[in-house]
Structure formats: structure tokens, C-alpha cells
Amino acid sequence: MMMDAAALNAFLERDFGQVAAQFCVESAEVEQLMLRLRVGVMHLRPGGTVSGPSMFGLADVAIYLAILSRIGPVALAVTTGATIDFLRKPEAGADLLAETRLLKLGRRLAVGEALLFSEGQVAPVARASMTYSIPPGAAQGAAPV
Amino acid sequence: MMMDAAALNAFLERDFGQVAAQFCVESAEVEQLMLRLRVGVMHLRPGGTVSGPSMFGLADVAIYLAILSRIGPVALAVTTGATIDFLRKPEAGADLLAETRLLKLGRRLAVGEALLFSEGQVAPVARASMTYSIPPGAAQGAAPV
Amino acid sequence: MMMDAAALNAFLERDFGQVAAQFCVESAEVEQLMLRLRVGVMHLRPGGTVSGPSMFGLADVAIYLAILSRIGPVALAVTTGATIDFLRKPEAGADLLAETRLLKLGRRLAVGEALLFSEGQVAPVARASMTYSIPPGAAQGAAPV
Amino acid sequence: MMMDAAALNAFLERDFGQVAAQFCVESAEVEQLMLRLRVGVMHLRPGGTVSGPSMFGLADVAIYLAILSRIGPVALAVTTGATIDFLRKPEAGADLLAETRLLKLGRRLAVGEALLFSEGQVAPVARASMTYSIPPGAAQGAAPV
What we know:
Four copies of one chain form a homotetramer.
Chain A: H1 5-15, E1 23-28, E2 33-37, H2 52-71, E3 78-86, E4 96-105, E5 109-118, E6 126-133
Antiparallel strand pairs in A: 1-2, 2-4, 3-6, 4-5, 5-6
């Protein structure tokens, strides 16, 4: 681990500007990172449910941070591909949590997946997997996943 | 065709509230629908490029509207799955256009795809395909794709 | 559970003919199903590694059987969408195991995911998620996932 | 173009051994490659329709060949991710054709897509997109897509 939850939250605040306030890294271990989306009006669709792009963004930030937790803040990993399945309607008025893990951290590509939950619920609202291109040299120090 | 470009834009304004101003249906034919994202500050990531969730949202709205153009505004189609490949960095300061077509319009499922372009560019910035669950009865009147 | 591992293996033998001999359900619980692909010459690519279509087929059969374990053998679930990430080269000469779980079992759609491993290895060789259309009435008896 | 249809078919025969007989490159232009799957008993599922893994394999080989047509036979491109939507049941007794194009041919990643048709039909049976990792140096000579 190159960055723990506190380091990741500090990174968010410094480099992600106004977006940072929407997110909070709850925990960051080698096996799993948990990211919270503080659901606000801007994330809602007509009808009160969390929008698809908001869920997409949560999964993207979560897996990105899981990579940074392993290779440090110098990296400029770029999302190259993403798949998402929307499973259930999120609860109105509840935050979303992304349970995230890396499946591969190679020299050129990283792949992670996330299950999204409405806080307090057992059944996931969405499943996502994303691939990132790692800039040359950036993954040097990290133990491969 | 149940709705043309003007009808779809009127639908956006009536039912999508503040989001509607970001989008404009440029054309809507049986073979292809073209949707514009008026890129503004809210769509940008640090660095000036359009964010992944904004591109995801553009493709989602575009394919959704392509379905509505065929089955009319009564439908409550729900996105069940999405895949997106990010191919190139969008141009700074240019709108995005989604060239969209339906591949299937069944009684239960619809599948569409979109290529996203920075306005004025030939090479696409992203490719997306999305699946929608169609509520029972809604696709009755439409000719199947 | 409508079908356990023994019932699923008997189903494979009866309805999948010559393909059945390639597969073996190792275990089937509500939480997880484990399916083995007995890797043979027909599954190999030049170079000795398991081919992409063989891994795709393993994930497809595994998630399909996970659905049947819940709704019984009457169903005619149809694969409507699939995504797969190839993470590492499979070991030469080792069987593949698919660790499978259902994420959603609705009245119309089921979604499952699988991690594929070369037997005896900790790091997965592939990740897959697949969506199935459930014929009307088939999921009636099953507790929803 | 580094390889035309004849060169690609010769490559298939030399390097893909017994698999080669299943495939035939019908045409290969910069804009589009067309690959035929000669559907035989081995590609069929119980019921007479072409199996999912066979369609997956067709799309994979087609996009792979589209890359080789641009960077030549030296390459060892590896499939890293794939998504496929199954849209309709293929016709019994008809070959499948994959209408294929490259969306990106970068130094490290290539992305292509394919629409699959039963020969003689207008509506596609499947849509696929796939990503390939390009070995360092291999794409040097090719004009980027």
C-alpha cells in the first residue's frame, strides 16, 4: 500500500477540487477499498433515484483510487473501458457505497471491479468493471495484483 | 417514427428539467439519431477534458431518445447494462456529438450503440452500447428493429 | 435451491450431450457455484493456452447453471449480454475453475458474474459478467436475489 | 494496409492450423473487414442455433485480423477485454458474417467492433467490441486509426 484512506482523501481534496466533497474513502486495504458517494440533489434523476452517470462516476473514482493506493499519487492512469450492470433502483435519500477491488495491476493495464450498494442494504444496486491504462514506469514499485 | 427531433427536444424540456438545456437532438431518423452535448464547466475534469460520466450520460440519453423516437413518450425504459470504450481525449472547448442507432427493439429489451465525436473531428472519442428493459406493452405499436 | 450439484450434473449430461463431458459442477450453494472446465486439446490455442471462446463458454455455462440452481431445469434462459476481461494467461495443462455468483434474479432478467482461475492458482485469469433473459413465469417460485 | 484478404487467409492457414478452415476473409479494406464463419456441427448448440462461444470467437478473430491487416503478421496482439450483445437467434444452416472495423489503433491498445449477421439477413444477430494490447513497437509502421 502506497496510500491509505487518509492519504487518498487528502489527494482527492487537493487534486479533484469541488468534486472531492462528494466522495469519502471509508477504508482502503490491499484486498478492498470502500468509497462513499454523498448523494445530493445533483446526483438525482427526476423521480428521486440516483442517476446512471453518478453511479458510473462513483465506480470510476473508486477503482481509480484503488489503483493509486497501490502505485501512489504520481500516476496518471486513464480509463480505457468500462462496463456496468444496473441491478436495482437505489434507495431514495441514502448514500451509495462502492465495494472495490483490483483484479489486475500490470505494468500497462489495471482492471478493477466494484459493487455499489445503497447504504444499509444487502442487495447491490450496480456492478461495474473498469480498465485503466497505466503510464510507463508508474507501476514499477508496486507488488503486482 | 413516433417522435421527430422537435418532439424529442420538447419532451426533454418538459420531463428532464434542468438537464434538458445540456442536450439538443440535432436529427432523428429511423436509421440514426444525433444528439449534442453542450459542453460546459460542469462536464469538465481537471485538465479541461470532458469527464467520463458526462460521456456516459450523453450516450445513455442518446440511445434512450432513439428508443422513444420509435415507441413514443409513454415509455419508461430503464437502462440495465452499459459498456463504453474511451478511445481518445475529447477536444477542449468543443461540444460532443453522439451518432446513435438502435440494433434491436424487442418487446422486452432494446439495444443501441453510439459513437461520440468532438464536433468537427473525424476520429471518435468513445464508443458505447447500452441495453434497456422495456415495460410490458410499451413497444406494441413500433415496428421491430 | 431447486437443484444441487448432483442435479445440475445430471441435467448437463441429459441436455448438453457431448459438451457435458467438458464440465463438472464442483459445488452449488446459494452464495456460490463452482464449475470446472476439463481442459482438453479442443480448448487450446496455438501456444498451449486456453482459448478465449473456451473461457467465454465456461463463464456462460457456469452462470447459466447458477440460474438453473435457483429456478429449476424448466427454464430457457437466453444470454443477452456478456462482458469479459482477460487478466492473465491460463496455466498450460491445468483445468479452469469458475467461481460464480448471481447478482440479480428478477422476473425478466438475471445477472451473474464469474471469476476464472487455473486450478491451484490464486490470481484470476479472467472476469466475466453476463445477463440472461428469463422466460415469463419461470422465476415465479424462486426467492429473488 | 499491410495485409489484404489473400494475405490474411494465407496467414490463417499457416498459423491457425485446423481452426483456419472454419474462417474465410471475404474482404479487407481500411474501412471494413468481412470475415465468414463456415458454420458446422461443432458451432451448434442443441436446437440448431450457433453457440455463444462460436459467435464470440468469430468476432475475436475478425477484429484480430483487422488489426493485423494494419500492422502486419509480426504482431502478437492479445485480447484484454470483450463485450458482446446477443440480439437475435442466428438462422439455422446459414454461415455467419462479421462486418468489422477498427475504432482505434494506438501504440499500446487497439479497439474494434463487429456486427454479426446470418448470411442473407439484414438484422444483426450480435454486436461485439474488443480491446487488444499491442506489443511494444508492433504498431510503429501503421497509420493510426
